[in-house]
Amino acid sequence: MAVTREPGDRTDAAPDETVQLLMRIRRYNPELRADPWWDEFTVDVEPTDRILDALHEVKWHHDGTLALRRSCAHGICGSDAMLINGVNRLACKVLVKDVMPKVTVEPIRGLTPLKDLIVDMEPFFAGYRSVLPFLINDEGEPDRERKQSPEERERYDDTTKCILCAACTTSCPIFWGDEEYVGPAAIVNAHRFIFDSRDRADRERLKVLSEKTGVFRCRTTFNCTEACPRGIKVTRAIQDVKRAILFDRY
Ligand code: SF4
Ligand code: F3S
Ligand code: FES
Fold first, then answer.
1. Domain containing 57: what range?
2. Are residues 126 and 228 in the same domain?
3. Ligand having the closest approach to the CA of 75
4. With 135 labelled, which of 5, 36, 100, 223 sits at a CA distance of 20 to 30 A?
5. In this predicted structure, what is the pLDDT of residue 191?
6. Residue 38 and residue 149 in one domain
7. pTM score > 0.90 for this model?
8. Which long-range contacts (CB under 8 A, 24 or more apart) does 39-46 make?
């Protein structure tokens, strides 16, 4: 028989036991109110559910007006980054049992909220586009694939893992104060091509990143590395790019 627990009860419930999670969610709807507000919901979930499941429970059974982005539900698409108990996380990767008995959910910081947990991602993607995040090689079509040694591939392996969730950029205090800063995610994606032996546009990207909106805005605070759900060593990638500008290639 299913056992229901109240918010505040013990957190060692069995995986399939129904528990009650208190959710405090930051709401915003400019058509209703000028300022954001907080709503609270108590939802029935299982300890192994994710916060995304709990948000669905709110949206599907308590308040259908709750607005959030999500797609894959498996940590791949990067669309559900949000502040969960004050830390940038993917809602589909945080388990209910790890936050019981209550959780606070807010939109990521530094980007303009549009509605509830949805923010305007355009400044984030503008930074991404500015670093030319695609392979550029004007040496003509090769007869076969462009070969690369394991060592050459290893040089940028870490930065291929980015899913563009924005958890890094929106945890960066420099970005909070200045949306013009391209931000760590754009630098990670520039790194992925700058250090690719098949690419020929490293100087162009390093020029963009040497401008006043580029890498030297970074003050090495490491928030970005701590926030990355893919475990990318973001600050190390930024340091690689700084060094390339200062000593190596530009
Ligand atoms: Fe997200 Fe990590 Fe990519 Fe930043 S570097 S956008 S935190 S996956
Ligand atoms: Fe910001 Fe990361 Fe640099 S948090 S200051 S980009 S190390
Ligand atoms: Fe795709 Fe969470 S919904 S990463």
1. 19-119
2. yes
3. 3
4. 223
5. 98
6. no
7. yes
8. 39/63, 42/7, 44/4, 44/18, 44/19, 44/20, 45/18, 45/19, 45/20, 45/21, 45/96, 46/15, 46/16, 46/17, 46/18, 46/19, 46/96
Residue 13 is assigned to a structural domain of this protein: no
Is the per-residue pLDDT at 41 higher than 90?
yes
CA of 228 from ligand 1 middle (Å) equals: 5
pLDDT at 23 over 60: yes
Ligand nearest to the CA of 124: 1
- Span from the CA of 231 to the centroid of ligand 1 (angstroms): 8
Instruction: Give mean pLDDT, residues 4-28.
Output: 77
CATH no. for residue 72? 3.10.20.30
- Could you say which ligand is closest to the alpha carbon of residue 164? 1
Ligand 3 site-directed mutation target among 68, 82, 90, most atoms within 8 Å of CB: 90
Which atom in ligand 1 lies closest to the alpha carbon of residue 234? 5
110-154: pLDDT as tens digits: 999 999 999 999 999 999 999 999 999 999 888 898 999 999 999
Residues 161 and 166: their CA atoms lie apart, in Å, by 13
